[in-house]
Write a structure and sequence with these properties.
Length: about 290
């Protein structure tokens, strides 16, 4: 083995490759950090160990494994898919290309749901659960709640169920179907959803990272409001009296979402901004 196979040399090599790649595009890009996280993943070590012992030598098999991971990230594949996991709320979730990568802004949905219902008991549903991020976060914070999660994709539900098992959150019920499809006759205190809301023609869909994610979970088609409208139209029939509907939406969609909610007879309609200052979540309550 040579010096090029030291952890420090591999880290610098990976960082150089990512700085010059699609992974370095955009203001939120973190090529040096990505290279470090890929290295810890490839060798099952920690960032502290990398920094304290950069001279540690690795075998050629390990080096090849790391280079392959870096190349995947260099094409724009999300880091979460490359390493197979993503932190969300207080959970570490398994993610694959069958589900969207959970975003930090979606944690606002969890925060607002918990704030709107502090009762020990409650019934909540997460529509289009994907990896289970929202449903499992609610179940972790409110262990006595009855939490249900739906998704049209059985592949996504398999990931969500696996995450629930890994986190020992066995009380969450997973049902296959589109939005309220599998929920006939049931009502909830809290309905949350992060549905597809990016119009198919939106320039944002050209982001290299997004081409790796399930397109149906990103965009409902030419009209970004399609799924949001469908949920809003049906939601009152599934809400308990004084129950709340919480929706994530695009940065410019809050006024239109609010109009739809008011037109459907919901009250106390208000939006909340994410950490970037965008109106990202809108909530509304059914009459008591």
């Amino acid at each position: 083995m040579t010096e090029r196979n030291s952890l420090g040399a591999l880290l610098e090599q990976g960082a150089r490759r990512l700085r010059a790649s699609a992974a370095a595009q955009g203001p939120a890009a973190t090529p040096d950090l990505d290279a470090e996280l890929l290295l810890t993943h490839a060798f099952g070590t920690t960032r502290a160990r990398l920094r304290s012992h950069p001279e540690t030598l690795v075998d050629e098999t390990g080096r090849t494994r790391y280079v392959a991971l870096v190349e995947r990230r260099a094409t724009g594949e999300p880091l979460a898919y490359v390493i197979g996991r993503k932190d969300f709320w207080s959970l570490q979730l398994t993610v694959t290309p069958a589900v969207l990568v959970p975003r930090p802004e979606t944690e606002l949905l969890v925060e607002r749901a918990l704030a709107l219902r502090s009762d020990k008991f409650g019934r909540a549903v997460d529509l289009g659960t994907g990896s289970g991020a929202i449903a499992l976060s609610l179940a972790k914070e409110r262990p006595e709640w009855l939490v249900t999660a739906t998704d049209v994709s059985e592949h996504a539900l398999a990931i969500a169920r696996a995450n629930a098992a890994a986190l020992s959150l066995q009380r969450v019920q997973f049902l296959q179907g589109s939005w309220f499809g599998p929920l006939s006759g049931r009502t909830f205190d809290i309905i949350v959803s992060n549905p597809p809301y990016v119009a198919a023609g939106d320039p944002a869909m050209q982001d290299p990272a997004l081409r790796h994610e399930p397109q149906g979970a990103l965009s409902p088609g030419p009209d970004g409001m399609t799924s949001l409208r469908a949920i809003i139209q049906a939601a009152p029939d599934y809400l308990e009296r004084d129950g709340w509907l919480l929706l994530e939406h695009g940065a410019t969609q809050a006024p239109e979402v609010a109009r739809e909610l008011v037109a459907r007879g919901l009250r106390h309609v208000r939006s909340h901004r994410d950490l970037a200052g965008h109106e990202r979540i809108t909530e509304a309550q059914r009459d008591g």
